[in-house]
Amino acid sequence: MQFGNLTYFFLLWLIPVLVFFYIYAFLKKDKQIKQFCGNTLYPRLTPPMGKSRQKLKACLVIIAVFFLIIALARPRWGFHWEDIKRVGVDIIVAVDVSKSMLAEDVKPSRLERAKREVYDLCQMLQGDRIGLIAFAGSAFMQCPLTLDYGAFHIFLDHLSPDLIPTPGTAVGAAIRKATESFSRRERTSKALIIITDGEDHESSPLEAAQEAKKEGVKMYTIGIGKSSGTPIPAADGSGGFLKDAQGNLVLSKLDEKTLQKIALETGGAYVRSVTGDMDLEQIYQNEIRGTIEQKELRSTRKKRWEERFQWFIVIGIALLLAEFFIRERK
Fold first, then answer.
1. How distant, in Å, are the alpha carbons of 147, 177, 181, 225, 299 from that of 205?
2. By the 8 A CB rule, do 154 and 119 touch?
């Protein structure tokens, strides 16, 4: 036998309380009757049969309470095997961790905003596998595809510009790394979400997108930052901004055109991250869940115990009904 909720066993303290209550009540009642009528009339007013019935009614109540408490704990015995299939989509999120993501044109910063977007995405997942790629001048698989969302959060927490020392924003490298990480045997159920400011001039992201399309990967890009340009805070925490060799401020601009082309190349979508906008919710609910074919990610067998609390409820109610219909006197 198993129990579904052991916490209700703490209510068993009611049993000894009821026992002491009835003992005290019977003794108190006898004492008051003797005081009222005296020892001569007492045997006539309290015949033995009446006392026995009172004790029987008390026992029925106590036993009924016991069975009802056991019912609350949900006793189970006997089981059957149930096949559980988990279906969904393989989703890899590629997050830009280059120094330009420290720009504060999106509060508190582009990188922190991106991480919050991904946290929100995890809350929406419906059984999908998720992986994480960090990229700057190169790309690194931070977390392989997994159903363990808690582990994914740990890797997401550690995203920072210090993670990849190679400078730059190699969107193309992130796309190639993601394409390699998906299963080559399948041509569906694969989605890549890229969150970046899109300033890539070296890694040929459009060519990488074409290669990903051949492997059945749909890409969704989220542009974060302003297209007008924003200075990048210095990494030393001095409060200053990055400057080039000539002493000019380095401005980071959002390259929306490239990100739009990448998404369109694979039949995906582009969304610009704006404060208060539901960027990833749009992509996940309307695009990924709405258009990408789902696949079986895992199939397991689970032992399902048969619930038997109903029997204890029936016995408890029957005892209470019996107590109600038993009279103390004929």
1. 28, 12, 17, 19, 36
2. no
Question: How is 42-102 classified by DSSP, letter by letter?
Answer: HHHHS-HHHHHHHHHHHHHHHHHHHHHHHHHT-EEEEEEEEEEEEEE-EEEEEEE-SGGGG
Residue 77 carries which side chain, given as an amino acid letter? W
Contacts of 85 (CB under 8 A, 6+ apart): 296, 298, 299
**CATH tag for 90-293 (out of 3.40.50.410, 3.40.50.300, 3.40.50.1950, 1.10.10.410):** 3.40.50.410
Nearest to 329 by CA among 112, 54, 143: 54
Domain spans of the chain, in order of start: 2-79+304-325, 90-293
The owner of tokens 């991480």 is 115
Q: Mutual orientation of helices 256-265 and 205-214 as an angle, nearest 10°?
A: 20
Q: Could you identify the residue written with the tokens 């200053």? A: 240
CB 81 within 8 A of CB 303: yes
In the chain, the amino acid numbered 20 is F
Q: How far is CA 283 from CA 114, 193, 221, 276, 277, in A?
A: 14, 9, 9, 15, 12
Element (H, E) at 27: helix 14-45
Strands (DSSP E) found in the chain: 2-3, 75-88, 90-96, 129-135, 139-146, 190-196, 217-224, 230-231, 251-252, 269-273, 295-307
In tens, the pLDDT along 107-158 reads: 888 888 889 889 988 888 888 889 999 998 899 999 999 888 999 999 999 9
**What pLDDT shows up at residue 278?**
52
Q: How many angstroms separate the CA atoms of 61 and 210, rounded?
A: 76
Is the pLDDT assigned to residue 280 strictly greater than 80? no
Per the listing, tokens 């210095």 go with 234
